[in-house]
Prior knowledge:
This protein has 157 residues and is mainly α. It has one domain. The protein contains six helices and five strands. The strands form two sheets. A three-stranded antiparallel β-sheet has the order 1-2-5. A two-stranded antiparallel ribbon has the order 3-4. A hairpin with a 5-residue loop joins strand 1 and strand 2. Helix 3 packs across helix 4 (81-100). It is globular.
Amino acid sequence: xxxxxxxxxxxxxxxxxxxxxxxxxxxxxxxxxxxxxxxxxxxxxxxxxxxxxxxxxxxxxxxxxxxxxxxxxxxxxxxxxxxxxxxxxxxxxxxxxxxxxxxxxxxxxxxxxxxxxxxxxxxxxxxxxxxxxxxxxxxxxxxxxxxxxxxxxxxxx
Length: 157
């Protein structure tokens, strides 16, 4: 397991991809440990990473590997954490920033991510049904676009 040093900027390291090859449960544990010493977390990177890691876990459980598939399409969308973070930044955060302006963007993005998260059994963090719906919509849009114009890297089944 990666050594945890609370004096480093964990969110910057995660966002930069330093933990992309670390298992989602380990990254979620790292976020949990880091958050214990952070009163009132508002940084969207924290919520973005939680959503990304939970989505990767969700799809790994559903498809036996971290890929997104749509029935009837001849390919799947690989879901490495960095790619999922990019989907969230470009497909969600940029739209929220455009709608609310840069002054309100951070708060609105955080609030949207909070709607996507839920405390599951034993208070474990999970994606809410809304979170699953949002991620499904984003990935379906990307995968369908890739099938139609081949602009996104996908693996053909």
